[in-house]
Amino acid sequence: MMKINHSVFEKSSKTINQCPSNNLPEFALVGRSNVGKSSLINSLLNNKTIAKISSKPGKTLLINHFMVNKKMYLVDLPGYGYASISKKDKESVKRMHRSYFKLRKELLYTLLLIDIRHDIQKIDIEFMQFLNNNYCPFVIIFTKADKLKEESLRNQFKNLKNQISEFWDTLPLMFLTSSKSRTGIDKICEFFESSLSKYSN
Ligand code: GTP
Ligand code: MG
């Protein structure tokens, strides 16, 4: 399994023109604000503070590149669907998502995060459709598994799968994770490794 033994925050970019230009493949994290994107990056990189997190939604507002093992990037993006950031910030986030997912050639896979405690929202489905329209393959990561007890966790996992299958004939890969208890972190590392090996072949 791929072990992450080297990671470094490289830069924050406002537009994709400013993003790193060394052609390393990248994995981007998206999802509703506060779903735990930045926290998941910290868990994957085994560094509590490398990505900035906050209990207040709308923390990440730029495109953040983290170089991993000198061979790929993890990309922390601003969240969508949060009502109370300013209209101006919302527009800028939308523009950023549009240009990133339409134009970023280095993007190998998108990780779309969903809070396991909540039912699927219209905006999540719309974002999946947006990714699909732009030929961006994605997997789904359910977050905050530590917040539910075993039985409700299993039920909710099933519910969410059913809800998503109403919109997708072929279900994307799905992972159940907790950044707090590190559930599912190794599985995501395995996914990185297998995606990278397919890419280089
Ligand atoms: P934006 O940058 O605002 O879009 O949010 P984000 O998706 O990056 O969320 P962030 O990682 O900043 O986490 C939001 C809140 O959820 C913080 O208070 C985290 O501590 C909490 N959180 C994230 N992941 C987990 C988890 O696995 N378990 C628990 N219990 N809390 C979590
Ligand atoms: Mg964030």
Explain this structure.
By secondary structure, the protein is an alpha/beta fold. Helix content is 34%, strand content 21%. The chain is built from 5 helices and 7 strands; from the N terminus they run ββαββαβαβαβα. α4 links the parallel β6 and β7. The radius of gyration is 16 Å and the shape is globular. The two termini are 18 Å apart. The relative contact order is 0.18.
Question: How do you describe this structure in short?
Answer:
By secondary structure, the protein is α/β, with parallel strands linked by helices.
Unreliable sequence segments: none
Query: What structural class should be given to the helix and strand makeup?
Result: alpha/beta
In percent terms, what proportion of residues is strand? 15-25%
Radius of gyration: 16 Å
SSE order, one letter for each helix or strand: EEHEEHEHEHEH
Across the major sheet, the strand order is 1-3-4-2-5-6-7
Number of helices: 5
Q: Give a list of the ligands.
A: guanosine-5'-triphosphate, magnesium ion
State the share of residues found in helices, binned by percent: 25-40%
Total count of strands? 7
What's the oligomerization state? single chain
Compute the average pLDDT. 93
From the N-terminal CA to the C-terminal CA, the straight-line distance is: 18 Å
